[in-house]
Amino acid sequence: MANGFLNTFLFVGLPYMALAIAIAVGILRFRSRPFSYSSLSSQFLENEQLFWGSNLFHWGLGWVLGGHLVGLLIPRTVLWWNANPLRLFVLESTALIGALLALFGVSALMVRRFYNKRVVAVTTPMDRILLTLLLIQILTGIDTALRYRWGSSWYASAAVPYLRSLLLFAPRPEFIVSLPWGPKLHMVSGFLVILAIPFTRLVHFLVVPIWYLWRKPQVVIWNRRTGARS
Amino acid sequence: MDIRSQISMVFHLDKCIGCHTCSIACKNVWTDRKGAEYMWWNNVETKPGTGFPTKWEDQEAYRGGWEVADGKLRLKSSGKGNYLKRIFYQPNMPTLEEYYEPWTYDYENLFNAPEGDDQPTARPVSKITGEYMEVESGPNWDDDLGGSPLYARNDPNLKALTEEQQLQLLSIEQLVMFYLPRICNHCLNPSCVASCPSGALYKRGEDGIVLVNQEVCRGWRFCVSACPYKKVFYNWNTGKSEKCILCYPRVETGQAPACFHSCVGRIRYMGVILYDADKIADAGLRPDSELVEAHREMILDPHDPAVIEAAHRAGISDAVVKSAQQSPVYKFVKEWGLALAPHPEYRTFPMLFYVPALAPVTATQTDGLLANDVENLFGAIDDARTPMAYLASLFSAGQEGPVRYAMKKQMAVRLWRRALTVGDIEVDVARRALREANCSPEEAEEIYKMTSLPTFEDRFVIPPSHREQAIEVLKNPLENKGLAGIGFREAPERGL
Ligand code: SF4
Ligand code: SF4
């Protein structure tokens, strides 16, 4: 019974709460304190460790996160792909490489953030919490990848239906309650990361300016033509 | 034709005494804040020298400005294609080391130190970490060190000189230096604006001032790399980029910017010019040898009825056109051809122009006797201690022609005035000099007046900006009578 309650809280209550708070607070913060939206880069203060930390972390994580997204969109194709052991091996190991890069990156970022004096000077408690959360997230992911050979198939056959049920507002945690604690922890910390978005510098990924690719090079703003740009 | 008006500037380098009053005026007004201590929106550097930040002119390292590739103008630092690649880590961005670590002193120790055998000292304390530090460099660290092996020797412009010239420049008898005060050039084709993926940087349509919208900036730092003059600075505390705002709150109320207003040498001129924005794209593609000309061609004659007519159609008010007609900048740049933009080869079309410093050798000493060399009128220019090639590297993309023209004219005006006031040069000789420098006696008088005797009003011809009209578009002034202002509504505090 207690277990059932915990499961409902972690896999139904928490994700909805995290998402709702992330969206509401994110919008509120964007509207009331736009100045606070920044990547808060510290490259200016330290750029050697950052080269490895930031590049590996962002590319590794982008790789893995992209994989999760693809799985969410086309789970059947993933299952079909994994039907062949060789292909399963290829998929699992490329994902693992991405995760290991991210792990190396986040560790470098943590060392830098906690021990470089200049960087410490611009470190907030939320930065520490966020980095720790991300480390847990990556570690639990790697743990799943290493310990369970069918990690990606599980994701496609259990986690994806569950995540989809969440998105359709008909939560069905039963898809995943029977999974081992490793992958479950991975999901919970994932929800915590989402919850952390509006309270940390993570907001910067919400405002990545993709539209730059289509913009004209120069921006001219006319006072008298109310914000008209040319 | 797309006529726009642009607040522009001229710095007369022959008049700069290197007092740094301008830098201090700016610092006190704008950058005396945490995260901005190291910034010098206005700095005065000694040339030849490495400048601030160190070797900012070395675009092989910093990759600022534009370049022409496949017949197209593109940012040297980051094309659109690879911008996502650089967003995580800017490979060409200067870091604190290239500026300096800001510090204060542990003054309290002077009062609180326990009694002892030695006098207490105030050790330097980092403004970033709050810990004791060794000061290794600071603002104007290379001040007056023309000829030094560490600074002058590493000036990127020396590449334009022969080995022999370089050695001469550094030998003790030949040492030469001049000051180069620098602020943001408020360029016509600003690479900082073009590089910002968030669109936080923008050029104001009415006066061309380039600004960073602090609420839109996300600290991606592209602009810091892209500005070839290194005049966008990253605030390490707020995580936002900042730059010279040309004191726009002052300019809008008809006052000269703080650095202009306080300039002791009175080297600074400000005025509006009219230009054709349609020409920017083509001008940017011209070969290096034509850049000075292309830049000048964009600037339109404010007395030309066709230009006035087109300006009115473009919504430029009469007052601005009038102001453009009196603009000292127009005179220096277009009419007299005396002022040149720094490093036109960066292709941003800076709107701050410099009158190159003359530093001539007008007399030679033989056996303890000083002799003026009047025979060879302009010999002094080529004998000038600063080699022409050096100035050409700085002001005209390596073309000696425009620099020589400006130098000759300055020299001729000097000879002319000397003939009139001191009289040790014959008026006829001076006239010949003027003719050779393509200058009429009337023009010489004008140049002389604008250089030596200008009043405040002559130096700063600031057009009315009609902000009251601009505001009416956005807000109803009657309804908003009690409004406190339109600036920050939240404290500019570092985000979580
Ligand atoms: S000088 Fe000023 S306007 Fe020109 S590119 Fe640099 S920051 Fe931008
Ligand atoms: S205040 Fe004027 S004279 Fe003094 S350093 Fe600045 S520009 Fe030169």
In short:
Chain A is an all-alpha fold and 230 residues long.
Helix and strand layout, with pairings?
The complex is a heterodimer of chains A (about 230) and B (about 500).
Chain A: H1 2-32, H2 48-73, H3 75-82, H4 85-115, H5 117-120, H6 125-147, H7 151-167, H8 181-196, E1 220-221
Helix pairs in contact in A: 1-8, 2-3, 2-4, 3-7, 4-6, 6-8
Chain B: E1 3-12, H1 21-31, E2 43-47, H2 59-62, E3 66-69, E4 72-75, H3 83-86, E5 103-105, H4 108-112, E6 124-126, H5 163-170, E7 178-182, H6 191-195, E8 201-204, E9 210-212, H7 222-226, E10 232-235, E11 240-243, H8 248-251, H9 258-262, E12 268-276, H10 280-283, H11 291-298, H12 305-313, H13 318-325, H14 328-335, E13 352-355, E14 363-366, E15 369-372, H15 379-383, H16 388-395, H17 400-421, H18 427-436, H19 441-452, H20 456-459, H21 467-474
Parallel strand pairs in B: 1-13
Antiparallel strand pairs in B: 1-12, 2-7, 3-4, 5-6, 8-9, 10-11, 14-15
Helix pairs in contact in B: 16-17, 17-18, 17-19
The complex binds iron/sulfur cluster (SF4) (2 copies).
